[in-house]
Amino acid sequence: MPSVPQLRRVIDRFKEAKATILQRWVSYETAESVLKRHGIETDFFIRQYASGVYDYFEMVIRGEMQIGDCPVMAELLEYLKDNEVTSDELFMLCSHFRRAMVDISYELGVNSQEVYDEISYVFDLNFSGVLKRYTETIYQKEREIERNVKLLEEYRRAIDESAIVAKTDAQGTITYANAKLTRICGYSQEELVGSPHTLLYHPDMPGNFFNRLAAAIGEEGVFKGTIKGRAKDEHTFYIDTTVVPITDTHSAVTEYMAISYEVTDLVVAKEEAIAAGEAKEYFLSNMSHEIRTPLNAILGFVALLKDEAQTVKDRRYLDIIYSSGENLLSIINDILDFSKLRSGEFTVEPAPFNLHSTISHTLELFVPSVNQQHLTLTSFIDPRIPYELIADPLRIQQVISNLLSNAIKFTPPGGEITVEAFYTEGRISISVIDTGIGIAAKDQQYIFDPFSQARNEDLPGAGGTGLGLSISAQLVRHMGGEITLHSHPGIGSTFTFTLPVIVGDETRPLLTDLECIRKHRLALYCPEQKFDTMAASLVRYLQSFGVKIKSVEVLDGSYDLLFFSEHCVGEAQRKALLAEGSPKVALMDAPYDTYENISGVTPLVMPLYCSKLQEVIETALMGDTEPEPRADTAGVRFNAHLLVAEDNEANQELIGTLLGNLGVSYEIVGNGAEALKRMRTEHYDLVLMDEQMPVMNGRDAVQAMRHIENREGRQHLPIIALTANVLGGIEQRRIYDDFLGKPIRMATLISSLERFIPRAEDAAAEETAPETVLPEHEELREILQVTEAQLQMLLGVYREKMQSSFEELKAAIDAEDLKQVTLLAHSIKGSSSNFRFDSMTKLAEKMEWEARAGNTALDYTGMLGSMRGCFNAFIGEGS
Q1: Is the model's pLDDT at 618 over the cut of 60?
Q2: Per residue in 284-293, pLDDT tens?
Q3: According to DSSP H, which parts of 62-208 are helical?
Q4: Of 878, 805, 789, whose CA–CA distance to 836 is shortest?
Q5: Spatial separation of the C-alpha atoms in residues 23 and 332, rounded to whole Å
């Protein structure tokens, strides 16, 4: 402990002046310059170090601490060790603390020779300890530097042996090149050092590469990339390089160091693989096109031969050829799609569409295949999905079709397939679930790879290209979505894909007038508590509608409508059902004719979707499922005057002929506006009103007629709707008195007229001479109840109408006027259905459905060609 009696006596005075001492210390010019040179702020120095130095000095004087081991000075030296502070600077910094103490002693009036000597004595001893610690710190730093230098040298040797190393200055001049670089490029170190870095670049490299490199380093602190180089002998090489900057003490870039590895073999192999892949894609695409052209011709002529085949054996052989050709065409189409996806030709084309319609239409297309394989197809399309979405409906339908085809292929007879669809926060989720053979875990990771297919010996006929799932996965990814698989061998598989969609502007509800259904008591007949997937699908939909349905095991009549599953009832239970008087709906997995001629039972064939279920329930509740009357209509007459609103000429002639045979007088107009005009000025006993007409449609015309009746107090005028949709909605049932479905049958027309017009008394059939009836017309004449001459006249009008309609339809297709296409296809469908021309009716119905949905991708021109072919074949048969 130092002997400092004078300082100990006045130390309290110094303590009072601590703040002044510290401020005086850092304010001396020399001390301030040292701090400034090393970037140390005075306030920081006082707070972090100077205050602690003073406290240590005071404790030494008071005898509370040993001199020469100031912990705060140790912290200061540790802080300054990377600032390269010199011993002279350290002495100046410490000595000015002594100077501040001495100066303050004069200001406090405690100065004396003894006080000065004691301050100097304590300082000298203290600085001696500081200097010793400083020397030890510098020594340790030197040893650390030596170790790091040695370590860096080892690193350099290791890198030189394994990597290409080069350095350039800030301007891009090479300053270092290791031996590995000289071996690759063929230049010596003497030739490289001092040369611009561009010496090694291939002419294919962009001229501004060095600027881009510097910019990348400036933004991210490093550059990584592949450089194409040219050696001294002009051969090409490639290197993967990492470039980092070397900076000075002021963070300015002085050099760039590049560490690289040669990848010439890898790049060449990649280029060769890409070239081979492009050649393969070109071959596949070209080959597919070349094969598809003659195959379309083959299928077309086989279809014509099928119509002309004379024997059952010939037709069977032609069916096999046609089916095989269709399978081959499907494979080729897969290859084409795959080639387009791989080559980048595929584009996503978003458009407004209705997901409910898209899925339900797709499901119906697969019903024949499902029935042929003896499978049950169910679905749940969430009614809460927005009515209009914007995405690529054609590609979505393609993915669903691929997944359904896959499920059908790998599900044994008796199995079940379910399609589910939901919408959540801007994304749709669609799943195809089957009870098939499942996919082994080892195969699942490859299932979306092209030409990959899980193998199973139990289904030897499940062949194909192995492209369907790969195409589906690529389509989903192109649309911004993802596809997943969950599968268990022997249990089944679930494929789910999700896609981003935009909700469109059309926001009308999917289902209307559900209150009419909710007010009825619905029940599900579950004898012995049997409950299958068809029943489950029904209940799930009804619950989503907010419609209650109870389960019953006893037929007690406590319901307005009874559902039952065909698979859950035995023969005795079926007899009891049919004997019970309530209207019923039979859930069926295929369109069997079990209940075709049974009154009170409406078949509901899987798969279910919202519109189908609503229509069937409404039909069953309305009692429209009774078989069409087949009573003898000969001699039936009515004394009545009717107004007919129908724009289709062929339909006008047909209705006129039928009404004429019934002794009814009539007037025919071509649109709703003309019908409304006639209704105001003329008297009619009944109106037959087509729904879809130009100028004013049937519904608007009827609403206007009802308004006139109410306003003027007129007698109620019966109005019967002529429509292909006999179900009608609630609003339609309010304004129409009845529905007469197309195609029109004489028996149903009579039945409908009898509800509002009494038959003429003493009506007798006119005596007519026997006529020659062509065999192919016999069934049609029987249905329409017309003579052969009348039928020939009607067919003549139909021919003229179709030829005119085809030209109008072609013009609408060429103009891409889908609204007009919809109207014309609907008109063709109606005309054709009246003559039971099923193939034409189905083609027109598909075109109408697609055009109404806004499907711009459909080949309407090709469909028109098919319609013309069907028409020509039909006319040929009827001539």
Answers
A1: yes
A2: 656 655 666 6
A3: 71-80, 87-108, 113-162, 179-185, 189-192
A4: 878
A5: 91
Q: Report the chain's terminal Cα–Cα distance, integer Å.
A: 136
User: In angstroms, rounded to a whole number, what is the distance separating the alpha carbons of residues 124 and 225?
Assistant: 61
Give the percent of the chain with pLDDT over 70.
79
What structural domains does the chain harbor?
5-142 (1.10.490), 163-262 (3.30.450.20), 280-343 (1.10.287.130), 351-503 (3.30.565.10), 515-622 (3.40.50.2300), 641-761 (3.40.50.2300), 789-878 (1.20.120)
Mean pLDDT, rounded, for 298-311:
72
From CA 95, how far away is CA 77, in angstroms rounded? 16
Q: How far is CA 505 from CA 270, 352, 479, 749, 853, in A?
A: 48, 9, 21, 41, 15
**Per-residue pLDDT, 795:** 74
Residue identified by tokens 């589910």 is 420
Can you read off the two tokens belonging to residue 511?
Answer: 């289902």
Instruction: Give the integer Cα–Cα distance in Å for 863 and 855.
Output: 13
Q: Could you give the CA distance from residue 664 to residue 749 in angstroms, rounded to a whole number?
A: 12
Cα three-residue angle 336-337-338, rounded to 5 degrees: 90
Distance of alpha carbon 109 from alpha carbon 870, whole angstroms? 126
Q: Which two tokens stand for residue 810?
A: 């072609």
pTM of the model: 0.44
Whats the size of the chain, residue-wise? 879
Report the C-alpha gap between 604 and 538 in whole angstroms.
10
- Regarding beta strands 416-424 and 686-690, do their DSSP bridges make them parallel or antiparallel, or are they unpaired? unpaired
